[in-house]
Amino acid sequence: MSSSDEMVPAQPHTPTPGDPASSTAAARWREIASTHTDEVAICTPESSITFGRAAALVEAQARAIAAFIDDPARPVAVDIECDVDSVVAMLSVVCSGHPLVPLDPFLPADRRAHILRLSDAIHLGPGDIAALPPAAAPAPEPAPEDPAVLIFTSGSTGTPKGVVLSQKMQPNHAQDGRDFMELGRGDRAAVLLPLSFGGGLDGMSMSLLNGATMHLWDVRRRTAVGLRDWLDAEQVTTVHCTPSLLRSWLGELAGENTVDSVRLLSTCGEPSYGGDIELFRTKLAPQGTFCVWAGASEVGDLAFNVFGPDREVPTGVLGAGRPATDKQIRVIDENDYDVAAGSIGEVIVESAHIALRYHGDPEMTARRFSRIDDGRTRYRTGDLGRFDESGRLQLLGRGDDAIKIRGYLVEPLEVEAAVRELPWTVDAAVTADRDAARLAAYIAIDPAKWSPSTAEIRKELGKSLAAWMIPQDIVVVAEIPRNERGKVDRAALPTPPPPSTPEPPRGLTERGLHMLWCEVLGLESVGRNDDFFALGGDSLAAATMVTEVREHLQVEVTTAMLNEGPTIAEFAASIETASKERSKNATGATIVQLRPGTGRPIFLIAGAGSLGTSLTPLARALDTDRPVVAIQARGIEKRARADRSVRKAAARAVSDIRSVQPDGPYQIGGYSLGGFLAVEAAAQLARDGQACDEVIVLDSVIDPILADRLRAGRFGLLSRLPFRRSSLSSADEVLPDRTGDENPTPKAPLPARVLQQVGQRVLVHLSGLVRLPPVLQWVVFFNLGTRMIRRHRPSPYSGAITVVRARTNTDGPELWGFFTTGPVRTVDIDADHNSMIRVPHVSQTAGAMESVLGKTPAASGVG
């Protein structure tokens, strides 16, 4: 039993049920206490008190306060702990007619002094109130519009404001508890919120003013150790806490921890997420109800979103839900007009049960509060929100938090929801710097898991966020700092490094690296002298980047070279040096032996702009002992004039093939442009009386211009007309793989994105004759290949072909009927155009090829 139980009880005031006085907090308490006399009102691990005993103490102390303080309007500040004495003291002040100023013991000294100075309150502890001289005269009965509580906002982003709450607000909160949580007599409600804050005060009203027993566990002093067992022992039916406490508490529990008596858990104070519901159902109450409870000091309860055990759990931030009792919520535009469902605007609340004003700040009160014709008050929240089609409210954060990035309006709360979905995240906060148009994400990582690099975090966020929504600054921290109310303490967040003005790349190789680094690191821009690892690159990102350079440019570079020169400028110089060495040692041959073997060779023709060695992963993945020989474009390595048509390039390929294997049958295949060359080479060999096995075409995409000409009538009159200028003008563009109207266009290979326009016509005309930087060399030969495909006229070929298609290729098999009169077979694999010849997806491509190679003997026809 608490020390308060030892006091001499006074005769409680008992209003007549249903009279106007019951619309005040004081009257509602007295009414409930008089009808629940022998039932437990407040329970802590140390003590408990019945409604009857508490009512007697409250009545005596209310009289003493009223007699002790001459000015009936002067507030009384009370130090509030999570114990019986503090609750009795709070009720005593409210019933005395004086405004209550709840003081939290965890507040910094200067914050407490500021509140006392601003409120001009008399500071009394629960013990001081209990020791006041007794008084015989009853306390004055407060009116519904009289101030009941002067509560101060957390001040996490500025100076705390005092909000004046009326006597009629707490009975309204009690009504919300009945309407949305079904709180009432017989419930045992565990309020795990500090009672000195708005959420805790509302939790007290919802439980006590509905006749439920309020169970108090001071998490800040006790921690959550033993909390689950206490809930079970007390057979608690409802639990009320913040989302951050829920995650911290339940996230640390292992094994079976359900509490059968718990039917409902509510969260308030900060956004809740779908993962919070899953945590609650998994760890505490599988068949329980989860309630999101949104509100603010100025409006009290705003909305409730109730998730029964069978309701589907959404991902991301949970909506605020249905408007609270007597709360009309509107979403308006900048002209104060209501917006349609789904549209974003400022949230406006109209009600008879919202705060009276800001204490001592008439200007702020006039900006936010206004009386409307029906006697209610309108409050402008400053929050952004929208209604969904079902009429549920979604809150999107403060209006002044929204930020425009690259012309798009971004809500930090939406970004934070994506950050919280990351597999490493324990806690997170996203802030916006409006002046710099930058977002900063702070991520607390589970210490039991490995810590990701910022590059990896950006890459993962790119799967769910648009590029402009990915925070420019990502800071990994041990924990997110929070103030005494459990809200993010933004002032304590570490300051991200100031943004620098990146020095732009110089030259084509640096431009290619710049594009690749931005892609790998998940950044919008990188300076040529910025350090790869300082930008968030780790060993995985380094390996990815080096692999891209090797495969696109066919230059042997290593991660060691990146470590020695970790900037774009330094690494580009290393690439240029390696490229010169390769050119110096190049033979100029168009034949490249990929792997030795026995029997008939397999000839593979490389794609446009690629060296024959780009097919090495495919050669190695083939389950065969046969030799594999690659054929590459003339002039791509050693200076020589490149072939300008598919037929001419195919004729050169035939010459190369017959220099290795004089007579057929031949096994020929080709990747991308090489597929067209392979089919044309097979046709030319057939005309010379040489047999070919089934030709393998690896994702050779038929350009739309060529496809239109083919469909026009197998090169009839239309095919002999000059190309339309609109078609020719696009010939200088590097086209990505055509994927059809309904599918997204895949990202073009890196070099093809470097320069879309820089004298391409001239460079293509000189392809092979002029030595170019490696990136530009790739672009020029790629564009030459595009022109060759567009101008190609297929020769009649009577053999069979197999077309292996990547998932981004939507060419119909009928188009290949224009290339052969023989059968056409298609094989689809789950990879894109580039990854199909790279590890690990190359194994699928090799498997498709082996289905063809297995049809023919490997040893016949070798010259």
UniProtKB/TrEMBL annotation:
Residues 1-26, 487-507 are annotated as: Disordered. InterPro entries: AB_hydrolase_fold (IPR029058), ACP-like_sf (IPR036736), AMP-bd_C (IPR025110), AMP-bd_C_sf (IPR045851), AMP-binding_CS (IPR020845), AMP-dep_synth/lig_dom (IPR000873), ANL_N_sf (IPR042099), PKS_PP-bd (IPR020806). Its cofactor is pantetheine 4'-phosphate. Residues 494-505 have a biased composition (Pro residues). Residues 504-579 form the Carrier domain. SMART domains: PKS_PP (SM00823). Gene3D superfamilies: 3.30.300.30, ACP-like, alpha/beta hydrolase, N-terminal domain of ligase-like. Keywords: Phosphopantetheine, Phosphoprotein. Transmembrane segments: none annotated. Pfam families: AMP-binding, AMP-binding_C, PP-binding, Thioesterase. PANTHER family: FATTY ACID SYNTHASE (PTHR45527:SF1), NONRIBOSOMAL PEPTIDE SYNTHETASE (PTHR45527). This is Non-ribosomal peptide synthetase. It comes from Gordonia sesuvii.
